[in-house]
Amino acid sequence: MRKLIFVVLLLLSIQCFAGGLEDSLKNIETEWAFIYYSTPKSKQGPAYIELLDKAENLVRQYPKAAEPIFWQAVLKATYAEQQDAFAALNAIHEARDLLLKAIAINPAAMEGSAYVTLGTLYYMAPKWPISFGDDNAAQQMLETALKINPDGIDANYFYGDFLRLHNRPNDAAIYFERATAAPVRADQLYADNQLKAEAKLALKNTQERKISSEKGLLLSLFNSASAK
């Protein structure tokens, strides 16, 4: 009987542990999305610092969980936008190391979101000797994220953005369209809806660019033929 009671209490404690972590992560995600998408730039810095403190406390509570480390990395990376160049470079290096740590703990955590964020850092960061920017590494990370979660909003959107920046609008449009059609996640509802809106705008802009490029090509061909 005592053994049975012990097992029941153990199971309950595990459920509370999971519930506490999940609720805390959801709160951090909601606060981060509000800061990133709805807070004026002048007020974002202090808000990020406060939220980063919450994420770091969560990491201390759950040191073997990948998710709090992931959010710590995201907060460091997004707060970098509010810092001077030297501090920003340090911040994105710290974010990269945290993402690698999260991946080492659980590569599939949050449906591969650490790979998406790391891939994004690789293609947005300055290249060597200034920083660790690397397009090949970015593509590898983003494609790994798509293998883990082929229907993910963030994986499709950021891979589309990577392709757009590398002058591949036709390929980019495919992934932007997938992002607009992807289901939103219950635990990241606000951020996913915001990213869906960005994906729709990116798709529209990419399609218009494709039409513009086609018109330009036809015009150049027409002018060439007329010259003859």
Strand and helix order: HHHHHHHHH
**CATH homolog superfamily of the largest domain:** TRAP transporter T-component
CATH class value of the largest domain: Mainly Alpha
Mean pLDDT: 84
Q: How far do the termini sit from each other?
A: 97 Å
Helix content range: over 70%
Q: What's the tally of helices?
A: 9
Assign an overall shape.
Answer: globular
Description:
The protein has two domains: about 20-145, TRAP transporter T-component (Serine Threonine Protein Phosphatase 5, Tetratricopeptide repeat, Alpha Horseshoe), CATH 1.25.40.920; about 150-228. It has nine helices and no strands. It has helices at about 1-40, 40-60, 65-80, 85-105, 115-125, 135-150, 155-165, 170-180, 190-225.
